[in-house]
Amino acid sequence: MRGAAGALIVCDLTRHETLAGLHHYTRQLRLINAQAHIVLLANKVDLTAERQVSEDELSLLANQLGCPYLLTSAKTGEGVQEAFEQLAHLALNDHMK
Fold first, then answer.
1. Are 4 and 36 in contact (CB under 8 A)?
2. 3-state DSSP assignment of residue 59
3. Where do the domains of the chain lie, and which CATH numbers do they carry?
């Protein structure tokens, strides 16, 4: 984590308890590498019937942590490329300063 330019930190939209992991892993990374960029990912957006986490909750959490968030699906690929592009964009903009 020390040399990382950034990280994608993921929760599962079908398991509310995974939101705590976003807090935990974001804190861990920032303790080790305060300059690392973070993008929060809310995965399994394709499983709408099983969804337990609302977009309002995600938005609030992202604001609290100071990170952008994206809805993704590893199964369908939705949002995955955008996640890597956003993280790369954040790191590149920081590098260009």
1. yes
2. helix
3. 6-96 (3.40.50.300)
53, with CB counted inside 10 A (0-12, 13-18, 19+), is buried
Does this model's pTM top 0.70?
A: yes
Residues contacting 65, CB < 8 A, separation 6+: 22, 23, 26, 38, 40
Q: What confidence tens digit (pLDDT) does each residue in 23-35 have?
A: 999 999 999 999 9
Say which residues have a Cβ less than 8 Å from residue 77's Cβ, sequence separation at least 6: none
Cα–Cα distance measured from residue 22 to residue 65, given in angstroms and rounded to the nearest whole number: 9
